């Protein structure tokens, strides 16, 4: 029994720290940096970035898509079919179609496939930081309760 446990632990250790798996993570990160980040910057940050968080969703930080917006997490790592981001860019949900018509043309099939591949591979995202969305909407800031005492 002791020998079997030792072998299992050794195999687990070897598989966890093997160079091919680490290289795979590096490839996933390179895919994100070369294909996904530029796409997000070009097509998504205008409405879902550091300056504006439409639907309370930020896509400029990993913590933003993990927490998600008003509809929940935008991405389910490993499962593009359950990811709101894929439903939005594919047009399969008419209420969630992104980008909006006034923000430019829809994503190309190649761009949609890149997003699906990235999510299927686990949505590796090296960006860090906390995505903070101000809980007080701009229109509510003019309410008397949020004004300084005079």
Automatic annotation (TrEMBL):
Domain Cytochrome c per the UniProt entry, residue ranges: 23-123
Coiled-coil regions listed in the entry: none
SUPFAM superfamilies the record matches: Cytochrome c
UniProt xrefs under Pfam families: PSCyt1
InterPro entries tied to this protein: Cyt_c-like_dom, Cyt_c-like_dom_sf, Cyt_c_Planctomycete-type
Keyword tags: Heme, Iron, Metal-binding, Signal
Signal peptide positions on this chain: 1-23
Signal found in the keyword field: yes
MF-aspect GO terms: electron transfer activity; heme binding; metal ion binding
Region of interest: Disordered: 90-109
Keyword hit for Heme: yes
Name of this chain's protein: Cytochrome c domain-containing protein
Species annotation: Planctomyces bekefii
